[in-house]
TrEMBL record:
Any coiled-coil regions, as ranges: none
PANTHER family attached to this UniProt entry: HTH-TYPE TRANSCRIPTIONAL REGULATOR (PTHR30126), HTH-TYPE TRANSCRIPTIONAL REGULATOR ILVY (PTHR30126:SF81)
UniProt keyword list: DNA-binding, Transcription, Transcription regulation
Short name of one Pfam family: HTH_1
Protein name as annotated: Transcriptional regulator
InterPro entries linked to this entry: LysR_HTH_N (IPR000847), LysR_subst-bd (IPR005119), WH-like_DNA-bd_sf (IPR036388), WH_DNA-bd_sf (IPR036390)
Amino acid sequence: MDLKSLQIFLSVNSSLSFTRTASEQHLSISAVSRCIHRLEEELGERLFDRDRRGMTATSAARRLQTVAERMLSDWRSLQQSLGDDERLQGELRIFCSVTATHRLLSPLLAAYREAFPRVQILLQTGDQADGFERVRRGSSDVAVIARPESQGESYAFAPLANTPMCLCLPLVDCALSDALQGRSEKELWTVLGDLPWVLPARGVSKDLIDQWLRGRFSRQPVVYARVAGHEAIVAMVSLGLGVAVLPRLVVEASGLENSLRVIDLGNELPEFEISLCARQPRLTDPVIQGLWKVAEGLEHSSDRIKGQ
């Protein structure tokens, strides 16, 4: 068992795909398969169950994941202790939404690359609501997420930005815009409960907005669709398919703000705190620890982005 084998194992354990791991590690599929087979022989346990439906990790794989992550973290710590920060090497898997990629991560990753030029950054994109689960499973080292109210002491957070929530209405020529045309903000609330809404499918924003709607209207509004990803919701509202409540940062980054009537909600809803998230034990890994230090430095400088 060597460090390279453990890296290959962790990649397979995350992706549950020999093909994807082979591509990420620049190996042949047969080389990945042989590596996993050798580990299984050394441990005397199967690491993955494979059938026509796909691959699943066994309990032995979950136990090995903990050991492998600790061994790789210890190795990086040793490398760092024997040299300066610029010699730090490794891989950092960051999961975030498309909006976070160019609005929040740009200054952070620029500073991180300058401090740790030999660390390879693997950017994984998707719905930010999936970020916490990916960190929990170990599919990503770090995720950019809306910070949940409580997740105990097992997770660490580093704030990146705060952004208020806003009400978004379509301006495109459609039945919805006709129903809203000429109404003041005060008058809007008398009809919004009767209009179709596009709502988040999961995550912090789903819980927050669902609770707000129950308190704001006498009956539950019509739900046109529940959609994964704030970016998709912005697009659907701009097409006249419904109204929505969204983080202002997402609306501003969408390029669709001119297609929307955007109304600040003030104190009706709390601001979103967008943060880095990682499992607390992983902060001993110098690669992740370095990202936290850079983020904390930006937080106290003018580079921190605040959604307005």
